[in-house]
Design a protein that fits this description.
The complex is a heterodimer of chains A (254) and B (434).
Chain A (H helix, E strand, L loop, with lengths): L1 E10 L2 E11 L4 E5 L6 H9 L5 E9 L2 E2 L5 H6 L2 E4 L6 E5 H15 L7 H14 L10 E2 L5 H15 L3 E5 L7 H13 L6 E6 L3 H5 L4 E6 L2 E6 L1 H10 L2 H4 L9
Parallel strand pairs in A: 3-10, 3-11, 6-9, 9-10
Antiparallel strand pairs in A: 1-2, 1-4, 4-5, 7-8, 11-12
Chain B lengths: L2 E2 L6 H7 L8 H17 L1 E2 L12 H4 L14 H7 L6 E6 L2 E2 L13 E5 L21 H9 L4 E5 L9 E7 L7 E10 L4 E10 L6 E10 L4 E9 L5 E10 L4 E8 L4 E10 L5 E10 L4 E10 L5 E10 L4 E10 L7 E10 L5 E10 L5 E9 L3 H9 L4 H13 L9 H14 L6
Parallel strand pairs in B: 3-7, 6-8, 7-9, 8-10, 9-11, 10-12, 11-13, 12-14, 13-15, 14-16, 15-17, 16-18, 17-19, 18-20, 19-21
Antiparallel strand pairs in B: 1-2, 3-4, 5-6
Helix pairs in contact in B: 2-5, 6-7
Classes of the chains: A alpha/beta (254), B alpha/beta (434).
């Protein structure tokens, strides 16, 4: 599904990612944890195709294609989905318009006909239930005036509609109270399947109580310094990030 | 004050040789004579004049315009396609001449007059020219000198018009370098209510000149929804003055959308002369290539307890140039004035420019006034978000641009008109042009 090899990336000449290696197979859920400044958001942005990052070394192959050669929209259409840490508000663009345009962009790429308004509405109503959202949200501006929890639920709604092959969840738990966290992770869990991979990027172990990963990796100073199963996350929780940062694999970390 | 008097088009002698309506009306003859004197001495405004600082009419003065249109045929199907609204009373002018066969004025309620200007002159003696000053801008004098056609709307007291009126002014392109001086008069008596759309469309991509003056008179409690949609050819010159006088309790709601023209200039002016009167003055200029569009607005609060809202937005691309100059005058008797004025601009390229100056002059001490202007670019986070959802860059940019632009339509109460204008704006964006 996804194969990251020796990925180096920099921003404004500053190296952020310093040789990431990661293999994600279909159906797997990986958690990438790490302290602030480790490069977590850079990794998710680089995978999603945001401008402003220079790839200095390495490769990323997604479903046998060179992911880094594709524009952001091309990646999205091929099934890469980034759930944003801070979903933007777009006043003047209705949520339903965005959702429909996004679904039809993917369908067009897959050689399917566009969904008409009625079919789309039927589909979106079904998905709304998954994240406990009212239909009202469809007719508001994208994320406009949404609470933190509503914005994150809206991200999962988009994921549910787009049915991506690879979902990257960037700090999806940040800013959520416990009820919202349960709703959001319930939505994500419902979307787990054997042909969909999920990469969760998070600072805290809390999210992993709700979305249980198959693998946990620790990112520190631009490298994955430790990998394990879900028990690693618990160990991190009790010992803190300094525990892995001081470990021999930590490489250049001071 | 130096003015542009050396013109490639001898407008003054055009007046002598043309057959203009109202030759038999002494008061109109006098008015035209006054305009001739004014225009002969002053000519067209030059850049040294403060109000014309950012807009040069040099290119206009170099054009040799003709005032005689050759016959042309616009078929009803074309006209239907061009019209903004399906369900409206429609008065159509093609190449400066009233087009009877294309107009749809059947079924107008009694006490409502919608007529070509040329045949209604006898009834407008009291009001014609009262809303605009001949001496200020030479273009109003020029219009008054040569005005020939337009629409005359009169709604009698207490009448609520059932459908909008669309004035559709078409330049067919059949006559090269055609100049037309259009004069519109909209008069609403006490408590009357109507919607009027001025819609200018160029069929060709040729050069021509439309010089428009629209006068609005609103009696007590009258309410006019007044929209202007300018879709001239990209080579056209479009200059328009739109001026209203408002009596107590009257409401004038304007939306002014500029899409076409190589050079366009709008002067929009309201005078709030009666208490509890209100003006909405909203607009959008959406420019690309080397278009130049200048909007000057002025709202005079003359008496206590009047209100105004103004929102103009600009979307500028390529190497175009936009100008916005808005003035709100709160006169010394105008206590309790409530006024706000905003101008927001979105620049889509490095080559374009905007000169924006919102101004308030306040001579009363108990007022609530706010104003401001902004100039910005598309939000990169929003753009990335849309692309990360699979929308290509052109679509994403167009969508964000449209979202920025359309809130100038928010204050239009009619869903169908708002939707029609929104679609026109959408089609003008890169995504809509594919």
């Amino acid at each position: 599904m996804l194969e990251i090899k020796n990925l180096h990336a920099s921003v404004d000449g500053k190296d952020i990612l310093k040789g990431i290696n990661l293999t994600v197979r279909p159906g797997e859920v990986h958690a990438i944890m790490g302290p602030n400044g480790a490069g977590k958001s850079t990794l998710s942005n680089v995978l999603a195709g945001r401008d402003g990052y220079e790839i200095t070394q390495g490769s990323v192959v997604f479903k046998d294609e060179d992911l880094l050669a594709l524009e952001a929209e091309e990646r999205a259409r091929r099934g890469v989905f980034l759930a944003f840490q801070y979903p933007v508000e777009i006043p003047g663009v209705s949520n339903i318009y965005l959702l429909k345009a996004a679904v039809n962009a993917v369908r067009e790429h897959q050689g399917l006909d566009e969904l008409d308004a009625m079919d789309f509405l039927t589909l979106v109503r079904e998905k709304l239930k998954l994240v406990h959202m009212d239909e009202d949200f469809l007719y508001r501006g994208v994320n406009e005036g949404f609470s933190g929890g509503e914005k994150k639920r809206n991200e999962i709604l988009q994921m549910a509609l787009l049915e991506p092959a690879l979902a990257i969840l960037d700090e999806t738990d940040s800013g959520l109270d416990i009820d919202a966290l349960k709703t959001v992770s319930g939505g994500v869990n419902a979307l787990r399947s054997q042909d969909r991979s999920i990469v969760m990027i998070t600072h805290y172990q809390r999210l992993l109580d709700y979305i249980v990963p198959d693998f946990v990796h620790v990112l520190s100073d631009g490298q994955i310094v430790k990998s394990g199963d879900k028990e690693l996350a618990k160990e991190l929780e009790s010992k803190g990030y300094s525990w892995v940062a001081d470990a021999p694999q930590a490489g250049q970390t001071a | 004050m130096k003015q542009l008097t050396e013109l490639a088009t001898p407008f003054a002698s055009v007046a002598e040789t043309s057959v203009l309506p109202g030759d038999d009306l002494p008061w109109l003859q006098a008015l035209r004579q006054q305009a001739l004197t004014q225009f002969s001495s002053a000519g067209l405004p030059a850049k040294k004049e403060e109000d014309w600082k950012y807009t040069s009419l040099w290119s206009l003065t170099q054009q040799a315009f003709t005032h005689d249109a050759i016959e042309t045929t616009i078929v009803p199907e074309q006209c239907e396609q061009m019209a903004l609204l399906d369900d409206a009373y429609r008065l159509v002018i093609v190449d400066g001449e009233f087009a009877t066969d294309l107009s749809q004025l059947d079924g107008l309620p009694s006490k409502v007059t919608v007529q070509p200007f040329s045949t209604s002159l006898a009834s407008v003696e009291q009001q014609l020219g009262q809303q605009v000053a001949l001496d200020k801008a030479g273009l109003t004098a020029l219009n008054t000198l040569l005005m020939k056609e337009g629409v005359m709307v009169h709604i009698a007291a207490d009448v609520v018009l059932d459908k909008p009126i669309e004035l559709l002014v078409i330049n067919s392109g059949a006559t090269a370098n055609l100049a037309a001086h259009l004069r519109n008069m909209i008069v609403l008596d006490e408590n009357a209510r109507a919607t009027v759309i001025e819609h200018y469309v160029g069929v060709s991509d040729g050069v021509y000149f439309n010089n428009v003056v629209s006068e609005v008179v609103l009696a007590e409690q009258a309410e006019l929804f007044h929209y202007k949609l300018q879709q001239e050819s990209q080579q056209a010159f479009h200059i328009a003055t739109l001026a209203a006088k408002q009596a107590a309790g009257s409401q004038w709601h304007t939306q002014n959308i500029t899409l076409g023209g190589q050079l366009s200039r709008n002067d929009v002016h309201s005078r709030l002369e009666g208490e509890e009167s209100h003006t909405t003055m909203d607009g959008l200029y959406l420019l690309n290539d080397e278009q130049h569009a200048d909007t000057h607005t002025r709202i005079d609060h003359l008496v206590p307890n009047t209100t105004s809202n103004e929102l103009y937005k600009g979307v500028l691309d390529d190497r175009c140039h936009g100008v916005f100059n808005g003035k709100v005058m709160v006169h010394k008797d105008a206590q309790k004035t409530d006024s706000n004025q905003y101008n927001h601009n979105l620049l889509l390229s490095r080559g374009c420019a905007i000169d924006t100056k919102p101004e308030m002059e306040i001579y009363a001490d108990d007022v609530k006034c706010g104003h401001g202007s902004t100039v910005g670019q598309l939000d990169m986070d929003q753009l990335f978000f849309l692309r990360a959802r699979g929308l290509d860059e052109v679509t994403a940019r167009s969508l964000l641009t449209h979202a920025f632009a359309v809130d100038v339509l928010d204050r239009i109460p009619s869903e169908s008109i708002r939707q029609a204008l929104s679609t026109v704006i959408e089609q003008r964006l890169p995504r809509g042009q594919k």
